[in-house]
Amino acid sequence: MNAQFLLGKIIRSVITLWITVSLAFVLLRLAGDPAEALIPPDAGPEVVEYYRVKWGFDKPIHVQYFKYFGALVRGDFGFSLHTGKPVHDIVFQKVPNTLLLGGTAFLIALFVGIPLGVLAALKRNSLIDRVVMSFSVFAFAMPNFFFGLLLILSAAMIFHTFVGAGELTFWSLILPACTLGLANVGSLARFTRSTVLETLNKPFMAAALAKGVGMSRRIVHHALPNAAIPIVTLLGLSLGGLIAGSVVTETVFGWPGVGSLLIRAVQTRDLGVVQFIVLMVASTMTAVNLMVDLLYLVIDPRIRVK
Question: If 0-12 CB within 10 Å is exposed, 13-18 middle and 19+ buried, where does residue 223 land?
């Protein structure tokens, strides 16, 4: 049954990836002629037509579609319309910076959001609970771009530190990481609180208390493992969305990552780069969701039995 479970998840992931990439391909071409956007306005119509034929935009969209997917099967992801370089070389140069930013933001959300949620659950209806929940609502509702600007101004006015665009320093990392991880901290704290509260009211927790099991052991060995599946699901969604969610944050802080590259590629209608980034983000999301589904088998024995 585990093999059948895994096969079903893989098939669903492949279908999701195919639909996402297909929609991106169609919508990018319906948005307008890339040749007209890339060629200078003073160029004659014959120049535009030359590049339209050269790049294959003169063919029907279904012909372009099958040609594109045939190239994907062969491992050819296309080239940049601006530089002529393979798009995977251009994007992969920015991936380490985005992974550094996203990984730091994920660790902030993990080591701040879950402890805050557990603390709020243990101190239910207390001042601490109200403060944590108020902060969670603030963190979830605060727009990334506005919070990022506040951090930049605070660093400049309080710590006399200027976050320069494109720099790779401690401040240029920690500030955008806090901005990117803020919403995840809020949602994770609220979700952890509700899940742990529900688990604390289970009969087995009362039995553990009656047996004299200490508070820390009840939380670590009884409450958190049984509350793990919803929390792992939210963590998976947060991890998968960090690359896609980094677009605004990287733009605000001038972070040299995939998000900033995507903004420039969309503005200049560099279809090859945009399509590859969409493919990479969609692959990341489906892979993370597949990993979360597989973790269910490890965390919950009941799913393995079913």
Answer: buried
